[in-house]
Amino acid sequence: MKAGTYILEAESVFYTFEPVTATIDSETETLPELIADRVQVCGQIDVGKTEMSKYTGQKRIIMIKSKHDYAEQKMQADDTGVFCTEVKIGEYTVTPLANLDDSAFELHLTPKSSDIKVEGPVDNLKFVQIKVVISGMVEYLDGAEENEATVALERAGEKARNVKAVKGKFEFSEVLPGSYKVSVVKNEYCWEKTVINVEIKAEGAKDVKFVQSGYALQYTSEKDVDVMITGEKSPVHFRAGDHFYCLKNKGEYEIKPVSYTHLR
Predict the structure, then answer these.
(1) Which residues make beta-bridge pairs with 175?
(2) Are 15 and 39 in contact (CB under 8 A)?
(3) How confident is the model at residue 264 (pLDDT cuts 50, 70, 90)?
């Protein structure tokens, strides 16, 4: 190497080096060290393929804040949620910033922020969409848990999910926060409530409860008619068409028409 002044540079995928000026002469034995000035920090925001498909295309912004001097730096995730930036050695807090998609689709990320100590490349940061559990029970008058009613979970604009209440218990997993309708389906039974509206937050819901109130007597009548039913103290009005009437107990009943009402 000829004597003279040189600029030393180094390149790396994970590090950035500041150029160093070195003077070389006949007495130079070693070159000055190239010290990494900045280190790469990467991560991903993962809200799942289904939720990602709802996005308007607005890119996610991530803020990284130094714990030393509180300097803030912002970076933008790509279409797959991946983000990368370069920072100096030190300690930082990384936080995904809320955007319009979060409000529109009720997306909630966990963790809300992540504290990191940067001593070398960081590539394992991950923020994921919170998914929770909705669970509950179905109570039967006769205590027969083997009845296995069907429980449905519905959200506006989405396909309903159905599960069986096994031994009186049901559960929906991987549920996004938001507003839902939970309903019980077993037509031969009557219920205190057949539909329960729930507002799901980050903690989910574990106390949804359906209580059987009676047994459904299903009937078809060509006309409005008043009938006497065994055990009832007064006549019961049956409307024309296909309907049901709730009885407190199961068993055999005698039904006798007592009058007809013609529809006008």
Answers:
(1) 132
(2) yes
(3) very low
Q: What is the pLDDT of residues 3-54, one digit of tens each?
A: 778 887 777 888 888 888 777 777 777 777 777 788 999 999 887 765 555 5
Q: How far apart (Å, rounded) are the C-alpha atoms in residues 98 and 112?
A: 10
Q: In sequence order, what are the residues at sequence separation of 6 or more whose Cβ sits closer than 8 angstroms to the Cβ of residue 252?
A: none
Closest among 108, 114, 16, 117 to 62, alpha carbons compared: 114
Can you read off the two tokens belonging to residue 215? 């047994």
Whole-angstrom distance, CA of residue 178 vs CA of residue 105? 8
Cβ atoms 130, 161 nearer than 8 A: no
- Predicted TM-score (pTM) of this structure: 0.66
Q: Are 126 and 113 in contact (CB under 8 A)?
A: no
The span from the CA of 139 to the CA of 210, in Å, is: 6
**In angstroms, rounded to a whole number, what is the distance separating the alpha carbons of residues 203 and 220?**
45
Q: How far apart are CA 110 and CA 97, in angstroms?
A: 12
Number of neighbouring beta carbons within 10 Å of residue 74: 11
The pLDDT value given to residue 263:
38
Going by their DSSP bridges, the two strands 122-129 and 109-110 should be labelled as antiparallel
* Number of other residues whose CB lies within 10 A of the CB of residue 132: 19
Beta-carbon contacts of 95 under 8 Å, excluding residues fewer than 6 positions away, are 62, 63, 64, 65, 112, 113, 114
